[in-house]
């Protein structure tokens, strides 16, 4: 992991779009010269502590994976405001150790990485859900009214409104009083079968490619990967239909999944996320719309899935 | 590679959005029941041979990589209509064996995989470009007038017009008579330094995450990966700034890069691409806008970067 986890400087530059598709080390070293007047790095460096938050330990999962490249950690922030029943179920499953020993079963290029019980559909072999609910209502959308959304002024082709709530990318249709989490890179959803209410949170997926926003309002999104996406996105693609692994040994085992709240305080990863209702966030979005330095053309536009919410190690 | 290359059925389902985020094998097996009335698979199966084309061998590169997971092949179709000078340079570099023995030097999660000469910026160690041009004009856009574009009716936030030309995703500003290749997943560009005209095609990158369309009109796109994206997208992310590898041994070596035209006919990979000016393509796009089966909600929308152009082994 540490080898593949970019340090904060890289994340900051990435926030800039990391547009320095440089020829090599020298130009890479010139990166500072290629940033806007007030760069994303400067905006972040000058941000007040109050613009940052620590994810709630009761809403944050730590998934420990074993991969052919070694062990890795994935942190997932759950979204109880949008999928309360699924989040409650996932908490219950994690506390019961349901996910421990399961595996990544599917990696489809430019689409999703999915994990869960490889035997979920074999009644005789499927792991029991224990005290978790075996049937949940679909949680595809919530009410838009009174939703504290940091709305983007930018045109979005998929929905009349887009923006951020609690750090999550959101789209909405105010006239229908509907809002929903949208399928941006790194978002986590609950796999379902053909019945809209057939997801339980026992099988989860994350988006590893271009946002498949056509899935919005069709499946329950439950959270977002806030650390470790580079691990889930770089697993070998599955050779079967829809990217499922054909041989069991190709699957990456899940060693365990815990809620941070259930871990000894000293063992909890310390991560902070920029508040998407903060002035710093609005300034960062504007820095992405209006480029300078390396850029000769400014898009004067961003989209809800092209702006990653920055994180940093807790000070 | 063969392990991670999805077979055509998987590609077809992927074209559908592969929205069956199923709980496992059984539901996966039910996939046919979850497709629209006339599914993408049916549309493709019933497509006339005349709706398919073979990429021009003079415009198609075969890159052979060595990775920790084994060897792999990447096919890149060049876009001479959009970047004639860069494409000519890349042909010249490939014919001179310039890329042979170079390496993937950078993989930044949700952004790009970049390859070239690790010593490009060390005058004493940089590999000479030979007969290729050391300086080229930037080729960021071309004229829109008379461009044979299959225009999308869907709203695009980044440009007034979007669509497809010669199988490539394109955006345009008709009132400025400008059109350009756009940074969708799998598009290939020529790395540059701070000077807009500092790209030569000696360092190339491909998009491995959500389309960074803010790069459009800032750097020269030269083509598209038509086979092997799952290889370039699943390499370990680099731990240095902007995803550059820190240790040389982390780089994946490029064994060789050849134009198909320079290969014995029998050795050329046989691949066909769906014509983006065909009726079949328009029907596929419509099948993505209007879903059924597994879907309970249809987006009634697509975007230029959410529609992958299908390929198939040549019959």
UniProtKB/TrEMBL annotation, chains A, B:
The keyword Isomerase is annotated on this UniProt entry: yes
Signal sequence extent: 1-29
Gene3D superfamilies with a match to the protein in the record: Cyclophilin-like (2.40.100.10)
The PPIase cyclophilin-type domain, residue ranges: 72-259
InterPro entries named in the record: Cyclophilin-like_dom_sf, Cyclophilin-type_PPIase_dom, E_coli_cyclophilin_A-like
Tagged with keyword Transport: no
Uppermost EC category: isomerase
Alphabetized GO MF terms: peptidyl-prolyl cis-trans isomerase activity
Record's keyword terms, sorted: Isomerase, Rotamase, Signal
Superkingdom of source: Bacteria
Alphabetical list of PANTHER family matching this protein: PEPTIDYL-PROLYL CIS-TRANS ISOMERASE CYP38, CHLOROPLASTIC
Protein's UniProt name: peptidylprolyl isomerase
Source species of the chain: Roseateles asaccharophilus
């Amino acid at each position: 992991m540490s080898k593949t986890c970019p340090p904060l400087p890289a994340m900051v530059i990435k926030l800039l779009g990391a547009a320095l598709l440089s020829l090599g080390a020298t130009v890479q070293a010139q990166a500072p010269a290629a940033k806007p007047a007030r760069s994303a790095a400067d905006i972040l460096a000058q941000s007040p502590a109050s613009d940052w938050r620590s994810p709630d330990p009761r809403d944050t999962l730590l998934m420990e994976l074993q991969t052919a490249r070694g062990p890795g950690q994935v942190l997932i922030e759950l979204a109880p405001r949008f999928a309360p029943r699924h989040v409650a179920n996932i908490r219950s499953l994690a506390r019961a150790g349901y996910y421990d020993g399961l595996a990544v079963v599917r990696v489809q290029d430019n689409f999703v990485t999915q994990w869960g019980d490889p035997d979920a559909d074999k009644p005789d072999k499927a792991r029991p859900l224990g005290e978790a609910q075996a049937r949940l209502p679909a949680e595809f959308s919530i009410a838009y009214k009174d939703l504290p959304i940091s709305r983007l002024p930018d045109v979005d082709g998929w929905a009349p409104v887009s923006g951020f709530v609690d750090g999550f990318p959101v789209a909405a249709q105010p006239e229908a009083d509907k809002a929903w989490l949208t399928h941006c890179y790194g978002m986590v959803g609950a796999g379902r079968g053909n019945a809209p209410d057939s997801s339980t949170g026992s099988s989860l997926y994350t988006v590893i490619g271009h946002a498949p926003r056509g899935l919005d309002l069709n499946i329950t999104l439950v959270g977002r990967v806030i650390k470790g996406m580079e691990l889930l996105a770089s697993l070998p693609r599955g050779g079967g239909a829809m990217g499922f692994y054909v041989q069991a040994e190709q699957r990456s085992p899940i060693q365990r999944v815990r809620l941070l709240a259930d871990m000894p305080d000293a063992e909890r990863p310390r991560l902070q996320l920029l508040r998407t209702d903060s002035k710093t966030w609005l300034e960062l979005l504007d820095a992405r719309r209006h480029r300078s330095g390396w850029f000769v053309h400014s898009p004067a536009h961003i989209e809800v899935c092209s702006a990653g919410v920055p994180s940093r190690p807790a000070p």
